[in-house]
């Protein structure tokens, strides 16, 4: 996989460079971007190209509604540098805008998902996108697990390179597949049936794997403990996971009653009226010993229902991670969002991945469709 920084300024100046970023950013109630983390991470490649005289054409998707405009992202990008938004993807307006683009200028085209051919990987769309540029740069690690036209179709038609962020993501997460001992992995989220292979892999490669979130509920239920109204998966862990010596689970949990009252309990004290919404302070204390002595820490997923306001213990774990001298790789949108509010120095948190599902898939498979397309 060649990185774009292997190209000289002479090879970039005046060239039309199509940059596939992942700027699928959350929007607030006011319609404006509420978190610019992915833009901050992805801007390095865009700025690198523009500084060397490339004519930068950025493409990305946003949201799940195919009619949603990516214009709010363009407005957010302007906090980092001058950007022109073009409300078209491959039509006459986009073609004209590209034709008038000058050296060092940056434009963002409309939401890729406006065209249904993107997710279906229709070759015609790949050709239309490729026709806009001389070179292709994939900097969208967070979307690299999707075999979409802009991810796998376009690089087959143009000289192609990894962006700076893509290069760094692959290196950091690649290292997380063979961590230095002693190592600790923290995994939150839900849907055990989809995460079971990854859990087994992490148990094999990490000295300790701590399971939190709804995944911990699955373990409690499989062990015959009460889970009340808590979210559980259709599939439950088997004995190879439940009795694995590297497995760590919460020793106390935060529960919520139907009237919204929260209380910390031991897992065996959960009642039918309770919903498990987070870990508890004794679990944080238990984790402290392992995290502070670790040489490598991998973290994906908050400890509880972050979106419901249960952020305290995720932030407490973030403080422990920041205090550790370990090499750290952290990913997942909610995890990163929680860290943004944890008031811990970002430079002490190690590598912050833009990938959620892509990060987990790369950990499991060791490659992704978007990475293979850059070979």
What is the highest CATH level, the class of the largest domain? Alpha Beta
Compute the average pLDDT: 96
As a percent range, the share of helical residues equals 25-40%
Q: What is the N-to-C order of secondary-structure elements (H for helix, E for strand)?
A: HEHEHEHEHEHEHEHEHHEEEEHEHEHEHH
Largest sheet: 6 strands, parallel
| Terminal CA distance | 5 Å
Short précis:
The protein is α/β, with parallel strands linked by helices and about 375 residues long.
Descriptive key words:
about 375 residues; alpha/beta; Rossmann fold; six-stranded parallel β-sheet; about 35% helix; about 15% strand; elongated
Can you put this structure into words, describing what you see?
The chain has 375 residues and is α/β, with parallel strands linked by helices. The chain has 2 domains: 164 residues, Rossmann fold (3-Layer(aba) Sandwich), CATH 3.40.50; 168 residues, Rossmann fold, CATH 3.40.50. 35% of the residues lie in helices and 16% in strands. The chain has 15 helices and 15 strands. A 6-stranded parallel β-sheet has the order 3-4-2-1-5-6, with helices on both faces. Strands 9-8-7-13-14-15 form a 6-stranded parallel β-sheet, sandwiched between helices. Helix 11 packs parallel to helix 12. It is elongated. The model has no long low-confidence stretch (mean pLDDT 96).
